[in-house]
Amino acid sequence: MKIAGKTALIVVDVQNDFCPGGALAVPAGDSVAPILNRYADLFSRSGAPIYATRDWHPENHLSFKARGGPWPPHCVQGTKGAEFHPRLSLPRNVTMILKGTDPDREAYSGFQGTDLAERLRRQQVERLFVGGLATDYCVKSTVLDALKAGFETVFLKDASRGVDVQPGDSEKAVEEMKKGGLPS
Ligand code: VGL
Ligand code: ZN
Hints:
Blueprint: E1 6-12, H1 32-45, E2 50-55, E3 95-99, H2 116-122, E4 125-132, H3 135-148, E5 152-155, H4 169-179
Parallel strand pairs: 1-2, 1-4, 2-3, 4-5
Helix pairs in contact: 3-4
Zinc ion (ZN) is lined by residues 55, 57, 63, 74-75, 100.
C-alpha cells in the first residue's frame, strides 16, 4: 500500500518591503497575511510542515538600480523592510528560508541557492501549496521550480498578490505556471 504523500505549505516573501508603505510595495500585499495565517493554522493543526521564504539581499545586490537592476533597494538583510509583515502570524515551528543572499545572483525562487528541495525531500513531502508575494515574480518562480523538482504543486491564488509592473503580469504568470505543469 502506498503511504499518502505529505503536503507542505510554502509562504513566499510576506515582508514589509512588499507591502503598502514598503520599498517595493505590491498593491494590497498585506491582504495575504490573514489568509496565509488561516492556511498556516490549518497545516499546523494537521501536522504538515510550513516553510516561509524571505528575500534577503545584501546592500549591493545586483537587482538594485545602483547596479543596473530593475528594482529599488528592498529586503536588505537586517532592515525593517526585510522583516515579515507584522500581521503575518505563523506557528513557531516554521522553517525559514533566506534567498537572494548572493550579491551577484538574482534568486526569485525559494529553491534557488537554498536547501529547500533537500529539506522537503528529507521530510517525505510530495505536495506543495504555495502562496504569498509576488505572484508575477517570486511566487511564480517558486511554483515553476517546485514543478521542475517533481513536487505536485498548488498555487494559492487567494493568498497571493502580484506587482503587475505591466497590467496583466499576474494573469500571465498563472498561464506560465500552467504551462509549467500546474494543474488548471
Ligand atoms: C520579489 C522583486 C524583487 C518577490 C523579490 O518576492 O516577488 N520581487 N525581489
Ligand atoms: Zn528581491
